[in-house]
Fold this protein.
Amino acid sequence: MGDSDKALETQKEELAAVEESERTRDRRCYIPRTDIYETADEIVVVSDVPGVDKNAIDVTLEKNILTINAYLDNEEPQGYSLAYSEYEVGDFQRSFRISDEIDREKIEAVVRDGVLRVHLPKAAAARTRKISVRAG
């Protein structure tokens, strides 16, 4: 499978996954590209949400499902008409199932330069700890 075929399949999967749920806004919705990192103390979810303002992002946690909704209201420049476009505008939506090992009271989300970072601190019981070995 060539790179263009792979990209097309990925795009179809992204749109299909979002289309399975009911939407109340009449516009495209995309699955944001996401990386997930784990350290000893936390899990960090990093999602691309270009052009979205911090006030237009909802991050919710319900029944172990972390959901990111980001709404983009694109404004056309006044006095211009669109002659050609390669960039499609739409909202972003993505959900993740998280374990009980996350400290729900300390979850934080920060957006900067179109990148959303959700910090999921591990509960004290789930953190890796070094156990000392004694001679005995």
In short: The two ends are 60 Å apart (CA to CA).
